[in-house]
Amino acid sequence: MIRDARVLRAGFVPREVEHRDAEVNHLSSVLEPITNEEPADTAIVTGPSGAGKTCVSQFVTERLREEVLDVETTYVNCWRNYTRFRTLYQILDDLGATIDIHRQSTPHDELVDRLQQHNGPRTVVILDEVDQLEDPSVIYDLHSLPQFAIICIANKEEELFSRVDDRLVSRLRSSEHVRMDKYHDEQLYDILSARAKWGLDDDVITNDQLYRIADAAAGDARLAIGILRTAAGKADRENHERITDDILLDAAEDARAQIKQKSLDSLTPHQRVVYDVVREHGPVGPSEIHERYSEEVDDPRTKRTIRSYLSKMEQYNLLEAEGTSRDREYSLVDSAAASPMQ
Ligand SMILES: Nc1ncnc2c1ncn2[C@@H]1O[C@H](COP(=O)(O)OP(=O)(O)OP(=O)(O)O)[C@@H](O)[C@H]1O
């Protein structure tokens, strides 16, 4: 049943990216100067979850490495590495330059100095979930080092700009911006169809079933591929020759639950407190959320930061907001109400 399980995994970078030619070309052209050993502009890639931001960025950088000998790439998930230290450390670690750095005692400036002294090939740094950095000055650190080209990935441009200081905003505003929207059903169908072709044996899933997955995923390629992977895994374990409609129905629910759990696991300790406040007291407005959150933690973040947490959790379908900006209230997303598999 399963021909190549890798193709169905979440982090797989496909040989062909579907329906994102313009975005691939745009991002490639921004990075083009480094093929001539010249500094490249920073690129900002934005769009909703599952729009292909990470996939397109990794595809473009891998292709660049195929074409040019002297280019390195490194990828940092800034949600997981949300402090300046951890992001800088992660980049240096990828470059093999962390020997004798002590996690507790090495000052930030020393890490930046190390990056500055790095005399290897030009390096493209992908900063994924960059809007989750507690201290976005790391973007500034990298921006000032010409041997690094940066791709900043975020859900919303405003979220990113609202968190950085003026000098960085003006630099980022002049950066190249690659925007991506949710996929249409037809586009998701094509993405799924390619994965099914490479990942599964023939006739394991029908076109009609692929369309139904595309429809249920509502524009999110991560969810669509997750449903396909879950369904194929279950059918394989239960020794079916094909994915049945019943399996598909369960897979949609399971894939949603898995993605939700992964997003919950990604929350930083402070974000988790905010989530729990909404879980216990929702529907609840931002001011009350901030008050209750501040009672729970020793070093509360600002109201503005809490608003950005709420927005992120909304993007990741953990919370939903109702009302206009003045009387907005947050509650947990009711998973049972998500667009069902028909
Ligand atoms: N155009 C595409 N062609 C082929 N596969 C795609 C395409 N877009 C997305 N995918 C696949 O869909 C999944 C989700 O995409 P990706 O992780 O790039 O989304 P994202 O926009 O970065 O989402 P998030 O903000 O949640 O990280 C990945 O497995 C990716 O390989």
UniProtKB/TrEMBL annotation:
One Pfam family, short name: Cdc6_lid
Q: The AAA+ ATPase domain covers which part of the protein?
A: 39-184
Which keywords describe this protein according to UniProt? ATP-binding, DNA replication, Nucleotide-binding, Plasmid
SUPFAM superfamilies for the chain: P-loop containing nucleoside triphosphate hydrolases (SSF52540), Winged helix' DNA-binding domain (SSF46785)
Please name the GO terms of the biological process aspect recorded for this protein, alphabetically.
Answer: DNA replication
InterPro entries attached to this UniProt entry: AAA+_ATPase, AAA_22, Cdc6_lid, ORC1/CDC6, Orc1/Cdc6_arc, P-loop_NTPase, WH-like_DNA-bd_sf, WH_DNA-bd_sf
Name one molecular function that GO assigns to this entry. Answer: ATP hydrolysis activity
Q: Using the UniProt annotation, give all residue ranges assigned to the region (Disordered).
A: 323-342
Q: Which family does it belong to?
A: Belongs to the CDC6/cdc18 family.
List, alphabetically, the NCBIfam families matched: orc1/cdc6 family replication initiation protein (TIGR02928)
**What is this protein's function?**
Involved in regulation of DNA replication.
This one is known as Orc1/cdc6 family replication initiation protein
